[in-house]
Amino acid sequence: MSRISNRQLVITFLACRLSAEMMTPSAETVLYGPDRFTAIFLAKIIAALLYIPLILVTLRFKGDSPVTCAFRRNKVFGVAVGVILAVTLTAAAVQTVISVEHYITDTLLNNILTISGIAVLVAVSVYGALKGLSAVTRSSVFAAAVFGLLIFLIGVTMWDKVNPDFIYPAFIEDGRYFVKCTLSEISMNSEILIFAVITDEIRSKPHKTVLYYLPLLLVILEFLNLLYNLILGPYMSKIEYPLYIIASLSDIVIFRRLDGIDAIVWLMCGIIKTALIIYCVGRIYSVCSKKPDTKKAVVVYGAFIFMLCMVLGSDRTVYEQFRSVMSGGIHILLGGVLIPLTVLVAGRKKQSGGEKK
Amino acid sequence: MLTLTVTITLVGCVSYVDLSDRAIVQAIGIDYLPDKKVYRISMQYFNQSSEGGQNQIDKTQDNVLKSVGEGESIFEAAKNASMLTGKDLLLSENRLIIIGKELRKYKLCDTLEFFVGNYHSHPQAYVAAAEDTAEELLDIRFKEGSTSSQRLANLIHNASVESRNESTYPYQVMTMLCTSTESAFLPLLTTATLKTDVTIPKETGGGKGNGGGEEQSEDGEKTIILDGGVVFKGGKELCRVDDDGAMAIFFMNDTPSEYSFTVPLGQNAMPSVTLIEVTRSIKATEYNGKVKFDVTFSASGKIGTKGGMKEDDKKAAEKVAEPAERELKRKIESSLIPIAEKGCDVFGLENTLRRCCNRFYRENMDRVGEIIAESEIEVNVNIDIFSQGIGGA
Amino acid sequence: MSNSKKLPDLSEKSVESINSGDSRLAANLNINCSEVRRLMNNSSDLIIKYFSSDGHRMAVITCEGMIGKAELANLIFRPLVSAPPKIQDDNEFFTKVCSDMPIAEEQKQVYDYDSLCLYIMSGFAVLLCDGAEFGIAIGIQGFAHRSIDEPSTHINLRASREGFIEVVRTNVAMVRRRMKSPTLKTIMMTVGERSKTDVSVCYLTDKADMNIVNAVTDKLKNIPLNTIAGGEYLQSFLEDDDSVLFSQIYATERPDVFVSKLYEGRVGIIVDGTPFALVLPCLFAENFVTMDDYTHKPYFSAFLRIIRFFAFIAGAVLPGLYVALCNFHPEMFRSALLLNIYSSEQTTAYPVFGECLIMYILYEIMREAGLRLPQSIGHAVSIVGGLVIGEISVSAGLMSAPVVLIIAATGLCSFAVPDLYDSCMILRLVFIVAGGTFGLFGITAVGVVIFFRMCSKNSYGVPYTAPFAPVTLKSIIRDTFRRESWKKLSDTDMTVQQLSGKAKSGHDTERTGGNEQDK
């Protein structure tokens, strides 16, 4: 089993989270004003608290994941934990695939068939999952590099369109929107589910992943929000993909607009996130069935994801309802908080076999 | 091999339009016909030249063709215009969106929604108003530049560079319309009779104009000029402003890089002053429900021409500074205050109020227009003349 | 050329059965010579010369053209004529000849027919004596071979002009000349059941990871091929997984590059019969490094490396990107460019996708034709290619000028990184198809697939995409996009094992591999 470093995982998590940020949020939660700055900050503090049970599990059980711990405790308990995590991960995967497909349809290819878009996305993600965790996490470095390039180019081309008058000192203007925005930010933290599955594949000190990840994420999200406010101002409340619009306004020598590069970045990140989720479910299967070869399981699961996406993604109304359920964050609570708490309570204090090398 | 197989078998799952089957729109004019209750879209699209050989753009040809379409909505009108061309519209090269006079009586954001909602449309197309109909403006063709619309776009661009008029991209206009008063500003394009190099094709709709097919107007040549702008409130046209008004709006919203104006000193002396490094500061204070806006402009300036001043160079700067400040203040106040009194906020005053008096703003969010109309606006200008022009120290 | 293991009449087992039985030499010269002739199937290039030395009947067996005739005369015949004082016993005499008369630096006693035949076919002269149950194999190879010349690939401006040749020993000597360190160790092996090709595994004992060395030697021992005609035959067996796109083994014709890579902790393999030496583990980033980078100033080297990276990306992606933008995303073009492309596409017969594919195939045909043609005719290819395809197809309206330009430019770009030419060519086709069917979405999807594939590869435990992924900042700053000055490079050493993500290979025990044969 290949092990990854926590730095690699941090970059991967950032790619996953930012892709969700760009493609998933509704226009109702990305509004002009100071509320979102405060909401992002508060959401990160709450997210840090949500990670505590998982961190305690990793510290107590020498880096083992809750699935592994639960399975060692009791097979039925382990399978139950695995199934619940798999269900929550499936919900996250479906939301990711459909939101990427909608993003592609809105921005790049207006007349692509839903089946084609979803098929290509799922196929590439399954391929990534088959290649293994290392392949997926290493690929995220390239996605991060392209993102860095995009931000640099936007900064260079759009600095003169920044209007500082759009920023003013205030924290919360609209209480209802503030709560909604905070909840939305928390519900996008599906990386906690991934973390719950692959902690035993992190080389050393898995809890440090969270220590690096959350502060970096906070800085990046606040920076992006600042960018939206400074360039778009009140107009950002009326559009669905603010960074895409800003990229379309950017003009460099070679290309007249950078929205294509923006779409490429989030497409890459979306595929990486889906591949990671599919890999995690394969890993759960491997732990619960004690079979090291997960190729068949991954392919079957990929087909299942494809079918689910076709059912939910064909009709935007149905998808909106699904998304509104997901924005409540129930899958985060279930898979990322309750499961580790249960494992902590039920698990014995014993040395697990997973000594880190 | 797997990738190849998959991609090849999926051919046909995405229909694309070949580049040669697209009409590259260069300018769009939208008018509303109240008698027929339809929208009328006239557009100039690129005329690829088949003569002049070897795939080059032939400058002797008329480089745009015109197409017109009508419909009950802008979308339908655009579709009808597209059908006339037999090609799919490509809005990404569209440089100019002209709103006709009748259409300005209706909500501007509804009109612009057609463009901002299409992610492929040109995000930096200029939006302008036509004095009468947009179609009339698009009937006039220019030979310079790659296509005719480039001249018009350059008009607005140059005015913006010289700080005389706003360059209004759709997203900027939409940003302005996001205020409580739904105010906006569009530069105004109007026809004029001047001696230019304009030629008028024999028939409306273009076609290949040969050298002998051009027509010269007997009264002089018709051209298009920029003449101030149009102010919107509630999304609909409120009033027209002249060049000074357009300048004032630019000064309040943008950062002027350079601005030149003439200072009337009397005694036949009309020196010109060029301002650079213009900074703007707007503050709002609230007292007993009344708001006062303090607008301060600071700039460095140099005397471009003495314009008949007899003073020597050293005294010229001292003599010109104060009149220049008064003149600029007059220009700005004469446009700013009348428009603000109508409750229109094309000057970013709501943002200032929000920034400086946030609590008061939140308590009175539904009557921002009234507050602006009742507010007091004081304009201060500080100009530091550092150069006396030719021969100056 | 097929290397099928089972032939209708002559399987490997039957080859062994030819040599099976009592394979030890007899004490009778006639029997030994007859047996050798029989084992060699009475081959016409086998020469057996009988002579007497001090009353003892002897024979020299050689392969025609494989030995140096002057050395044969001067080192064997002449000394044996003036043989040592009379020794009656044949065996004793022959032993004395072997011990007291060192004829050549390579001299071995041979006791069995298999080894004897192998030495003969390796260019040794085998000396047999009537009454002695052993032979003496004398290394006086003198077969014709190419002289050391400038390498045909990896040409550099300021670096050495010497390149490897087809003789393994000469190549090893060139390596030894550049690394006069006792830590440089070579292990000579033979690979191939029939061809018995000499292979030299080289490494620095204080730098290389022994797990990698052991893994390489084990793999070489277990290669099931009968015939090894070149180093490329070994590549598939030495790679961890058989990759379609990128090879995990670096091939070089340059001894200076070979030595530099040994110093980085890698293992080198020199194969007899090919001037290309293999080095592993190989990283993707190494394909963009040349020896000239270390002879120029650092800032210039950095510029060239970045150019090569961009050239590779452009060579692979540019046509696909062009097709994608024309068909799906024309809004990304600059206005004047779009109008020019638009004008040019009006008169062409095919859509952009078709044009790119046709031009790509024509270009590859032209390149292949130019490669295979004799030099005298090869010039005609450039004339035909330039005039016919470039000029006339555009003026005839079959192709548009931008497409011709794009394909020509990408062709040039792919030549900037010759090691990745074949990968670039395949990727170009894939991206053209992807861009033509799904636009930027397709290109991105294919790109991600390639990233997944590259990132999943480990070259003997070292991540193939290192130092980019996983990130090793120290290495990236030191010697990837830019190279630090020699002063800073000399301060620290960095081996390939120090990169992030390095995992241990499957071999736990340290084995030196042993010196199989020192011929």
Overall radius of gyration of chain C: 29 Å
* Structural class assignment of chain B: alpha/beta
How is the main sheet of chain B built?
A: 9 strands, mixed
The proportion of residues in beta strands of chain B is: 25-35%
Shape of chain C: elongated
Low-confidence stretches of chain C: 10-21, 505-519
The overall average pLDDT of chain C, rounded, is 82
Task: State the end-to-end distance of chain B.
Answer: 76 Å
Strand tally of chain B: 13
Rounded average pLDDT of chain B: 82
Order of helices and strands of chain C: HHEEHHEHEEHEEHHEHEEHHHHHHEEHH
Overall structural class of chain C, as computed from helix and strand content, comes to alpha+beta
In short:
The complex is a heterotrimer of chains A (357), B (393) and C (519). With 393 residues, chain B is of the alpha/beta class. Chain B has helices at residues 2-9, 74-85, 108-116, 134-138, 149-161, 170-177, 243-253, 313-341, 349-356, 358-363, 368-374; strands at 22-33, 38-46, 64-71, 88-90, 96-99, 126-130, 184-194, 221-233, 236-241, 258-262, 272-287, 290-305, 376-387.
Commentary on this structure:
- The complex is a heterotrimer of chains A (357), B (393) and C (519).
- Chain A has 357 residues and is mostly helical.
- Chain A contains 14 helices and no strands.
- Chain A has one domain: Up-down Bundle (Amino acid/polyamine transporter I), CATH 1.20.1740.10.
- In chain A, helix 1 (6-23) crosses helix 6 (133-158), helix 1 packs across helix 11 and helix 3 crosses helix 14 (330-346).
- The longest helix of chain B is centred in the last third of the chain and has 29 residues, at 313-341.
- Chain B is an alpha/beta fold.
- Chain B is globular.
- In chain B, strands 1, 2, 3, 4, 5, 6, 7, 8 and 9 form a 9-stranded mixed beta sheet that branches.
- Chain C has 519 residues and is of the alpha+beta class.
- Chain C has 3 domains: 23-138, no CATH class; 168-281, no CATH class; 298-459, no CATH class.
- Helix content of chain C is 46%, strand content 12%.
- Chain C has helices at 12-19, 29-39, 69-81, 90-100, 113-121, 168-178, 210-221, 232-238, 255-263, 298-327, 335-345, 352-372, 375-395, 401-416, 421-456, 473-479, 486-491, and strands at 46-53, 56-63, 107-110, 125-129, 135-138, 184-191, 197-204, 250-252, 267-271, 277-280, 458-459, 462-463.
- In chain C, the strands form 3 sheets. Chain C has a 5-stranded antiparallel beta sheet, with helices on both faces. In chain C, strands 6-7-9-10-8 form a 5-stranded antiparallel beta sheet, sandwiched between helices.
- In chain C, strand 1 (46-53) and strand 2 form a beta hairpin.
- In chain C, helix 6 crosses helix 9 (255-263) and helix 10 crosses helix 15 (421-456).
- The chains are: A mainly alpha (357), B alpha/beta (393), C alpha+beta (519).
- The interface between A and B is medium-sized, with 34 and 25 residues.
